[in-house]
Amino acid sequence: QLVEELAGATIPQLWAEGGEACFRRWERLAIRQACGRRGAVIATGGGAVLDPRNWEEMRREGLVVALTASPEVLAARLGRGEGRPLLAGGDPRAAIEELLARRAPLYAQADVVVDTTGRRPDEVAEEIVARWNREWPGVRRVWVELGPRSYPIYIGEGLLPRLGELVRVHCPARRCLVVADQTVASLYGHSALAALQEAGLEASLATFPAGEESKSLAVANRLYEVALDYGLARDEAIVALGGGVTGDLAGYVAATYLRGVSYLQVPTTLLAQVDSSVGGKVGVNHPRGKNLIGAFYQPNLVVCAVDLLASLPAREVRNGLAEVIKYGVIADPPLFALLEEELPALLALEKGLLAEVVARSCAIKARVVRRDEREEGERASLNFGHTLGHALEAVSGYTLLCHGEAVAAGMAGAAWLAWQMGLAAEELYRRLLSLLERAGLPTSVPGLDPREVEQRLRLDKKVRAGRVRFVLPRRLGEVTVEAVPEELVRQAVELVTPPLGGGSAAEAERG
Predict the structure, then answer these.
(1) 478 catalytically annotated
(2) Catalytic residue flag (residue 316)
(3) Can you tell me the distance from the alpha carbon of 510 to that of 483, in angstroms, rounded to the nearest whole number?
(4) What is the Cα–Cα distance from 302 to 277, expressed in whole angstroms?
């Protein structure tokens, strides 16, 4: 009705004037307008799922319910299909079967699927209302929109016990191999298996030694052996339960085992929840460098249970917080202000605030990934602080610094460069340094050899024509990628690698 109202023509008239493409344009406009309402139940046509932009509108605003029925029932309800151009001029039953075959994978992406065969409308309505009332109270949901590879991120408390329920909704697998390092397995492995089994899924646990050194082809090969012994098939799934190492390793195994099986991310660190679990970058290390062997392979589902973060050491919380600060600088000034105001509560792991921060961080990354899935352009903005940070990690031997700590010092150096190059105001640099220091994050790494750091910078993938390129802030919420003069690069490196006893970057800069 809204399509016809907006277009000033009936649907058959739109079809006659411009074909299906014309109708779909008006349909998209109608869905956008309808989804802007509040407290509404919106009934779309079955073809609305064909446009990923419609999915984005609908998922952002509410619960998406797919009403299904058998071809026989649909044919009986629709008769000859009057007023439905896709069913006109032939055998409606055959057309329905063909349409259902093409659209079934898209309908399966709905939050709730209700089979209406043999049921009265009031019975169907009651089930929808009941499902709505059971719909994850207090849980935030972010969608990573990538067409047929789209997936949801659930964020909130109490999600691990409902893992099996989520798998049944978002993944076709009925058997799962849970992959966790030995530390996480001892904390949460039994709970994850129990949650899957209570939902009627068969599940087994595969473990490996905790630590970055396990992110290797050798450990991946051992996991292949476990999967083969378990008999994991192509229509079954791997569950990555743990931090960034587990997500990268298990995701790489899922991407390559039997040429790809479904997998799910259940990140248990703040860093993994806000960063590495989202976006589909999976891989293992090589003796000659980190993440040199890998793929872009999207999960079916990400489950961020913020109550699991209570088991983290304080250093690990700060490690993840560096990436959250990054998101505030590159894309969300209100998030940056929230961190400035609520930092003590966040460091104390106040769960409601944690869920808010994780959800906003995931939403930023999801938007960037949607526009640049394979890191060919805009996704470079996510590397704010990482150019210098990766060099600091490498020179320190990947043992002295956590990833977030290296990124924190890298952000300090990048913000200083932006100030010196006239791209950003000094105030931005001062605010960032203040927030990093209040969060207990380093703004410099005393004692490292600045010449070695500078040499490592030359290996960065953003180097062009021999010049190092940095992601630099212009203001909160806006960054740019710029080639930096060699002398300024040297000064920035010296700023964040003062002699032992040299203090923070702020102190070095003031001195």
Answers:
(1) no
(2) no
(3) 25
(4) 7
As given in the structure block, the two tokens for residue 352 are 């409601």
Pairing of strands 301-305, 262-267: parallel
Please indicate whether residue 221 is annotated as part of the active site: no
Q: What's this model's pTM, rounded to 2 decimal places?
A: 0.75
pLDDT at 59 over 90: no
User: Is 386 considered catalytic here?
Assistant: yes
Q: 405: part of which helix (H) or strand (E)?
A: helix 403-420
Phi, psi of 121 (to 5 degrees): -55, -40
**Is residue 319 among the annotated active site residues?**
no
Single out the catalytic residue among 54, 285, 300, 383. 383
Instruction: Judge contact between 282 and 297, C-beta under 8 A.
Output: yes
The residue type found at 81 is G
230: Cα separation from own chain's centroid: 29
Burial of 455: CB neighbours in 10 Å, binned 0-12, 13-18, 19+: middle
Q: Which is catalytic among the residues 38, 120, 133, 259?
A: 259
Catalytic option among 84, 390, 456, 469: 390
Catalytic residue among 170, 281, 456, 469: 281
Catalytic residue check, 403: yes
Q: Is 286 labeled as catalytic in the residue annotation?
A: no
Q: Which residues does 493 contact at the CB level (< 8 Å), separation at least 6? A: 388, 413, 450, 453, 454, 457
Q: Is 190 a catalytic residue?
A: no
pLDDT in tens, 276-298: 999 999 999 998 778 889 999 99
Give the position of tokens 């890191």: 375
Give bridge partners of residue 282 from the DSSP assignment: 295
Report the amino acid identity of residue 265.
Q
Sheet holding 262-267, edge to edge: 140-144, 151-156, 301-305, 262-267, 237-242, 175-181, 202-208
CA distance 46 to 263: 28
pLDDT of residue 433: 98
> Is-catalytic flag, 281?
yes
Q: Among all chains, which residue has been given the structure tokens 């109270």?
A: 137
Specify the long-range contacts of residues 215-221, CB closer than 8 Å, at least 24 apart.
215/245, 215/248, 215/249, 215/283, 215/284, 215/285, 216/284, 216/285, 217/284, 217/286, 217/293, 219/249, 219/284, 220/249, 220/252, 220/253, 220/256, 220/284
Task: Note the pLDDT tens digit of each residue in 307-360.
Answer: 999 999 999 999 999 999 999 999 999 999 999 999 999 999 999 999 999 999
What number of H helices and E strands is found in the chain? 21, 13
Q: How far apart are CA 405 and CA 321, in angstroms?
A: 9
Q: Find the catalytic residue in 386, 393, 454, 509.
A: 386
Q: Give the Cα-Cα-Cα angle 310, 314, 319 (nearest 5 degrees).
A: 105
State the DSSP code for 307: G
